[in-house]
């Protein structure tokens, strides 16, 4: 019933490929990471695009649909675009009198023999001007490639063997850069512990997906149509696996779908729900040990507890970090060409890093490059953070020996341009995914009038041992702050294994609510790139368990929350069609308003109404059980509205609009407010703590300073009076 298949292709009775094996995929340049058009400036300049090929597919044929506009100054015959796939020239697209200066579209077949696990598409502009004297770097030499251009892959699925050694593939394939969509199948009589096991499985796959985004459709007693995870106990299993053999131990097994030989099912099995949890932990903690179609898990536990802020995806704050640690392959730190593409280095900064009055983050930058002909040309290295220019360095003839620069990389909201080495342009965003970009530009060499010598193909490299240093910063943050939850999963991701997190859901959750749970926890684990094996899941407000936890409430019935939150009422109440909100005054751009000012959090308006339309909300507040713990509640008038709130966390365009203590979702719109008394999480040195909080109240600070001077004066006067009295007594005795 469940045979083991190989990589061999199956033909239908007519000799044609099985239609179930055929799949077509279209990737726009936008989906490959380019939000804007690709600007190619100068002759022999290239742009690069990367994409992967899944393990369970073989590319049979492919096509590049290229939309572009070329400069009207280019001359035909000599000017053209060269298309490379993994270093192999595929096509040369000529610039003609008919298409230059006009939008043109061409369809170019790509040779499937050159596809690999990871593919690089390079588009190079070779441009010539109709002039006797011209410069390869002339601004008139350009081409604009539309982000609507597409790569179309026509592939054939292959029959993978049932082998656990290829995990997490094919359920998650690191070669696939698209959002992870992985169905999770339950039997009809699932219980809270089964849901808990599925949540941990979603956390594992989310930690693998990282930046791609996650989607975990929930199927109840229904066979999936694609690769899926199935939660299976001896007493609760979906109908299509009702006759599958029972087990006595926690078991992991890969089988082939009974109706589709190209689809694999990962069975997480146990005699009961407790064994399911052991099997999931074995998957998350011991996947490197798995092989063969079946594995039984005898023991899986985390012996050494995690410590705060040790997430694999967050930059270390206990020592300087080398740039080589922040990239998967040191080769990405090297470029070639006169105007090569940017070298990009991504990093996440802990959301609660306290950077008040910081002079910036030290960056010891080391780089080497092909030296220019002289020191007076325009060759340079430009550095930017999140698209904002920071500093530029001239490339000199000493480049062959390398050069070191110490830069202070500024932090968000650190002011504007200052003097010395204090570059005060908003750049690093604490808690967000940051991108440092380094752009080398080599000028062509002018040798006398009317003679331009191309600079050849210069090379440049950022040394992997260049360091960036976040040490010495304490952890302290003003809450509630839904922005850090939306961008980094904070405060739950403070512990990478989510061991300080308790998730509360209603009893007997619906499939859609379970889907919201799986996707939310998957999102948290994706933020830290580590499975949340320490997560606690409850279906009631157990004060004893919640006392020392950050609480994530998903779709919790208000009657459950009332008893727990009676001491700290949220700014928004949502009960079916009844809605009530407390709001501050309309103060303009709320996102950048200084909320720490007195009165900024005060409720100025109260609104209560009844409505039946789609409505979801995120609410942040202080935990009623611990002053340094937080509660984030995800609510919806219907389960589908709750799922829409969850998926907003995987929608980059919505994240900037989620902040404060309340975020409300209606269709495509997001409205956020900050209401209620703020609280602080973390610790500061006593002196810094005093100065930070009193800095917002200068008159109180001045009064305290004056009072201190008066007290010191009185004490000094009393001491002098005592000394004078003693002297008088000595004189009288004599």
Automatic annotation (TrEMBL):
Bilayer-spanning residue ranges: 699-720
InterPro entries: Cell_synth_B (IPR003920), Cell_synthase_bac (IPR018513)
Entry keywords, A to Z: c-di-GMP, Cell inner membrane, Cell membrane, Cellulose biosynthesis, Membrane, Transmembrane, Transmembrane helix
Membrane topology designation: Single-pass membrane protein
Family matches, as NCBIfam families: PRK11114.1-1
GO cellular component: plasma membrane
One of the protein's GO biological processes: UDP-alpha-D-glucose metabolic process
Function: Binds the cellulose synthase activator, bis-(3'-5') cyclic diguanylic acid (c-di-GMP).
Pfam families: BcsB (PF03170)
Major place of residence: membrane
Species, as recorded: Zhongshania marina
Name under which the protein is recorded: Cyclic di-GMP-binding protein
Record flagged with keyword Cytoplasm: no
Subunit structure: Tightly associated with the cellulose synthase catalytic subunit.
Associated pathway: Glycan metabolism; bacterial cellulose biosynthesis
Superkingdom of this protein's organism: Bacteria
Family membership: Belongs to the AcsB/BcsB family.
Subcellular localization, as worded in the UniProt entry: Cell inner membrane
């Amino acid at each position: 019933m469940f045979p083991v298949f190989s990589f061999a292709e199956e033909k239908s009775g007519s000799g044609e490929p099985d239609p179930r094996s055929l799949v077509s995929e279209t990737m726009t340049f936008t989906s490959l990471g380019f939000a804007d058009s690709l600007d190619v400036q100068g002759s022999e300049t290239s742009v690069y695009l990367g994409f992967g090929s899944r393990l369970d597919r073989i590319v049979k044929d492919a096509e590049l649909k290229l939309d572009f506009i070329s400069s009207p100054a280019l001359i035909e015959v000599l000017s053209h675009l060269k298309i490379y796939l993994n270093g192999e020239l595929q096509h040369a697209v000529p610039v003609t009198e008919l298409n230059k200066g006009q939008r043109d579209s061409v369809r170019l077949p790509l040779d499937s023999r050159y596809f690999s696990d990871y593919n690089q598409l390079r588009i190079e502009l070779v441009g010539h001007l109709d002039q006797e004297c011209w410069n390869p770097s002339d601004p008139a030499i350009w081409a604009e490639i539309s982000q609507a251009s597409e790569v179309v892959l026509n592939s054939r699925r292959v029959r993978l063997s049932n082998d656990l050694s290829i995990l997490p593939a094919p359920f998650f394939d690191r070669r696939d850069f698209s959002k992870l969509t992985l169905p999770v199948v339950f039997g009809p009589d699932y219980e809270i512990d089964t849901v808990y096991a599925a949540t941990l499985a979603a956390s594992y796959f989310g930690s693998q997906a990282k930046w791609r985004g996650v989607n975990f459709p929930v199927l109840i007693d229904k066979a999936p149509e694609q690769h899926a995870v199935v939660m299976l106990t001896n007493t609760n299993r979906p109908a299509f696996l009702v006759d599958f053999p029972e087990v006595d131990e926690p078991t992991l097994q890969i089988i082939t779908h009974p109706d589709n030989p190209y689809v694999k099912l990962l069975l997480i099995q146990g005699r009961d729900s407790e064994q399911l949890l052991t099997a999931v932990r074995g998957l998350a903690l011991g996947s490197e040990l798995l092989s063969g179609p079946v594995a039984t898990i005898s023991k899986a536990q985390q012996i050494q507890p995690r410590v705060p802020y040790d997430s694999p995806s967050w930059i270390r704050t206990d020592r300087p970090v080398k740039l080589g640690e922040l990239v998967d392959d040191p080769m990405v730190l090297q470029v070639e060409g006169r105007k090569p593409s940017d070298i990009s280095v991504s990093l996440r900064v802990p959301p609660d890093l306290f950077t008040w009055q910081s002079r910036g983050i030290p960056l010891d930058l080391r780089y080497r490059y092909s030296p220019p002909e002289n020191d007076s040309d325009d060759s340079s290295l430009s550095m930017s953070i999140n698209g904002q220019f920071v500093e530029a360095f001239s490339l000199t003839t000493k480049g062959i020996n390398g050069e070191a620069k110490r830069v202070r990389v500024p932090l968000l909201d650190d002011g504007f341009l200052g003097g010395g080495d204090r570059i005060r342009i908003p750049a690093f965003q604490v808690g967000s995914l940051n991108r440092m970009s380094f752009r080398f530009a080599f000028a062509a060499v002018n040798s006398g009038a009317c003679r331009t010598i191309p600079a050849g193909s210069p090379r440049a490299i950022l040394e992997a041992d260049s360091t960036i240093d976040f040490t010495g910063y304490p952890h302290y943050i003003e809450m509630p702050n839904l922005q850090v939850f939306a961008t980094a999963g904070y405060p739950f991701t403070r512990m990478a294994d989510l061991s300080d997190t308790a998730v509360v859901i209603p009893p007997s959750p619906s499939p859609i609510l379970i889907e919201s749970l799986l996707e939310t926890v998957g999102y948290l684990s994706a933020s830290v790139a580590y499975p949340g094996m320490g997560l606690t899941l409850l279906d009631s407000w157990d004060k004893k368990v919640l006392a020392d936890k950050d609480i994530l409430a998903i779709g919790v019935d208000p009657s459950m929350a009332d008893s727990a939150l009676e001491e700290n009422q949220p700014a928004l109440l949502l009960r079916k069609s009844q809605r009530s909100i407390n709001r501050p005054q309309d103060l303009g751009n709320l996102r950048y308003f200084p909320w720490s000012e007195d009165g900024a959090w005060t409720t100025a308006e109260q609104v209560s109404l009844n409505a039946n339309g789609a409505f979801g909300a995120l609410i942040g507040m202080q935990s009623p059980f611990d002053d340094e713990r937080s509660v984030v509640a995800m609510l919806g008038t219907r389960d589908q509205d709750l799922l829409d709130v969850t998926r907003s966390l995987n929608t980059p365009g919505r994240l900037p609009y989620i902040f404060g203590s309340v975020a409300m979702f209606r269709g495509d719109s997001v409205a956020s407010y900050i209401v209620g008394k703020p609280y602080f999480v973390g610790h500061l040195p006593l002196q810094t703590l005093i100065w930070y909080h009193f800095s917002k109240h200068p008159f109180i600070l001045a009064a305290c300073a004056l009072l201190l001077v008066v007290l010191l004066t009185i004490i000094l006067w009393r001491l002098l009076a005592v000394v004078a009295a003693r002297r008088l007594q000595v004189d009288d005795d004599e």
